[in-house]
Amino acid sequence: MSSPDPAGLRARAAQLDRDDPLADCRDRFLVDPDVVSYLDGNSLGRPLRVTAGAMTRFVEQDWGGRLIRGWDEQWVALPTELGDRLGALLLGAAAGQTIVGDSTSVLIYKLARAAVDAAPPERDEIVLSDDDFPTDRYLLEGVAAETGRTLRWIPTDRAGGVSPEQVAEVVGPRTALVVLSHVTYRSGFLADAAAITRLVHDAGAPVCWDLCHSVGSVPVELDAWGADLAVGCTYKYLGGGPGSPAFAYVAQRHHGVLRQPVQGWFGRSDPFAMAAGYEPAAGIRQFLSGTPPVLATVPLQVGLDLYAEVGIDAVRAKSEALTAFAVEIADALALEVASPRDPARRGGHVTLRHPDAKAVVAALWERGVIPDYRAPDGIRVGLAPLSTSFAEVAEGLLALG
């Protein structure tokens, strides 16, 4: 049974869908008819319809047909070739600076540890937000303990994020590394990455950007920002699927300077020589460790095909429209918005506050409406621009009324 719609939001959603230049993209995704509204696309994206066929072809032809020959023919180069494509399409990164492989956690550890190890001993502070994603905080706690550094926490508004002014207050001659999220996982706040990067550099330190909640939803310009390091995942907006590999960016000026701590055979100068002693490979390959998850990259490759077709600017325009419509519905229902209202400071999701958020989300899931719960009182509405319709947003949020 449909929820009440006193403000005519369903009709407005229908018009927005008719006007949406990316509306046809939704038909390219598998959409479960039992799911009334999927509002968690910033945690796990829907699969593209072509993904199953691509996986089958890989198993039958690339793996089954080529067998071990596949390594020489294409798989050895896959981490860097796929990294270059991702960098060009979505990261604003020139070739030779991005790899695909490992998990987000492993890559954050490798890059953070490498950066801290390269800092002089008097730079003994790692700067981070006290409301960043838990993995980031836990990993940096570990890096600090391993290297004898201390953590410098930036107090963060749970409905906002870290500003350049806050960063300016804490960075200085003791800063070894700054690690921040481009889009915060809780509120969707979009950081001013260019300004923050300049401030950190003025203090003589590098910055590592967590792009997990921004890549594929908002434009990223790592080279233009002057970024040093970045890490992100591929299972949210990029359609890589559960547990799909992450990516790491290391600016070329740091190659041969930073030495990553997980010295696996795939990051050696000649891995198949099986030689004694570790000699890092040249360029971005030195940040590889173990054998890349080749099979797991297939869904990501077809996801990038769609981004190559539509372009990130069109995706960002749709994302802004979707989140603006979500805020409009929240206001009509007198729901508290715990995300920035300025689209220029908002990424691809919106968080609403509700005193019984956990129970509300559980009840919505039973009705086929799937947002995300974020403790203690957040209902996070994740809107994947390529697979989410305005009608879907209306149906899902009206169920909160």
Topology summary:
Blueprint lengths: L8 H11 L17 E2 L11 H17 L2 H7 L2 H14 L6 E3 L3 H15 L6 E5 L4 H14 L2 E5 L9 H7 L4 E7 L11 H10 L4 E4 L11 H4 L3 E4 L14 E4 L47 H13 L1 H21 L3 E2 L11 E5 L3 H10 L2 E2 L1 E3 L3 E5 L7 H9 L3
Parallel strand pairs: 1-11, 3-4, 3-5, 5-6, 6-7
Antiparallel strand pairs: 2-8, 7-8, 9-10, 10-13, 12-13
Helix pairs in contact: 1-13, 2-10, 4-10, 5-6, 11-13
Keyphrases for this structure?
401 residues; alpha/beta; Aspartate Aminotransferase, domain 1; 38% helix; 13% strand; EC 3.7.1.3; pyridoxal phosphate; Kynureninase; PyrdxlP-dep_Trfase_small
**Whole-Å distance between the termini?**
13 Å
Count of separate DSSP helical elements: 13
CATH class of the largest domain: Alpha Beta
| CATH architecture group name of the largest domain | 3-Layer(aba) Sandwich
The major pleated sheet works out as: 7 strands, mixed
The largest beta-sheet arranges its strands as: 2-8-7-6-5-3-4
Based on DSSP secondary structure assignment, what is the total number of beta strands? 13
Number of domains: 2
Percentage beta strand: 5-15%
Q: What class, by secondary structure content? A: alpha/beta
- Whole-number mean pLDDT: 97
Oligomer: single chain
